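Protocol step 6 of 9: fold each sequence in the batch and record its structure tokens directly after the sequence line. For illustration, a two-sequence batch is reproduced in full.

Sequence one:
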Amino acid sequence: MAAKTAAAPAKKAPKPKAEPAAVATLEAPHTSASRFADRFAPPTPPTRAMNSTVIESPRTMAKADPKLANAWKTKAGTELTDAEVLAMPEAEYMNAKQLEFFRAKLNELKDGVLSNAGETTEHLREDTSIVPDPADRATIEEEHALELRTRDRERKLLKKIMQSLARLDSGEYGYCDETGEPIGLGRLIARPTATLSLEAQQRRELKQKMFGD
């Protein structure tokens, strides 16, 4: 009996190759810690080139000019300009030239106040009773009231000027009444009747605001 030939097993069809997994293009989500850090991290300041230009004060600029710094040596105190006085060495504070300079300023200020006071007095002598129109009379009276307030301010200023001139004679001019420190040329040029340094003046004003004294 003929041997039966065993049937060869059927070949399996090859499995299709699996396609490679697509690479995720989205970034992994941040963790809660990273979200917190990103949210509250301080902003990065923009990068900016720093300007190296140094702004000099008028006093520094004046000192840099040798003509201004030495002008006081050849000029009288009454001929000096504000810039020339500011350029003087600190060791020369309140020397004879500066005292002469400020005396001239105070006398000029005094002459201006006295001149204005004379004009105010003439205006106040006008008789408002001869003005028939009540509206015009009221206007003139209002102007008189304003001139009286101006006259009062000028009277107080004149008193300060005379006190400053007396301080020049006694050698106390230019020094703070409270601390004895120099008031400073810049402050005196701006306000020749000043008797306090800027710091002492600020303390006094603060005290007045706090205590109404």
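Sequence two, same batch, same settings:
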Amino acid sequence: MAAALAFLLAAVLLVPAAHAQQQRGSSNEEPGLGRLYQQARAQSLVRDRLDDERVAPLPPVRLRTPGVDSLRARLGLRTAARAEGGREAPPLPSVRTRQAVRRLGRGAFTERFAGVDWAYLGTTGRRTLLDTMETRRLRARLQALYGDPTLTVVDAESLDGRPRSDYIQFAYWLVVNDSIPAKVVDTGGPFGRGLVFAAPARYRQRLRAWRQAVLAPLAETDLRARYVDYYFEAGTDTWYRAGYDGRRFFARPVRRDAIVAGQRPTLQRDP
């Protein structure tokens, strides 16, 4: 605690000095921008240090100068700004139903939730099953619970010319309580761990808890079902047939010319 208080005092004392130095600099910059930058940086550093010391942070301060929007994003304060002065997040609803969207239902889902601002949560570093379990094992559980994915890597008009970041290996789209959209996405392939969870941005402040509620059946079940997917490894430009045959997990390279856009693979008895 003493170290955190000393760090806080040093950061506060550095702000006026930085302001004086900024005044001696170029006069072409927007008035006050240097001062606001130094204040925002000091607050960010103090917040990180206090978090390390496990001390509850002060409520975030929203900067009202439009010119610092890009700085706010760069310093990681965008979430604080959207929280509107530290207002408490609304309570999470109880999860009553989860309905998986079928492949042919993608258009209706996209149209219905076209205006949704999404928030995303990857692996959090915490020791939860949804963060640490191998992705291929989570995929087998999803198959047992919801059937085939809503989207796979080959569900496209063309398989070539896409940026590496656009290769989503598979995705399950869900509708919770008949009205709340959610997505479970694999971007790293079967050799990775965990999945990406997406939900409306209004749940951003409690996204971990909302993920736990929505994906509770995935964490609790021991069921696994047979499946096969195509998987594209962007780093080596290699395609695989990967899946679970009921006895073991497998992943075997396949030629690019054996894959047709829009055609998913079928599971053979002996892959």
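Proceed to step 7 once all outputs are recorded. Observation for sequence two: The first strand starts at residue 98 and ends at 100.
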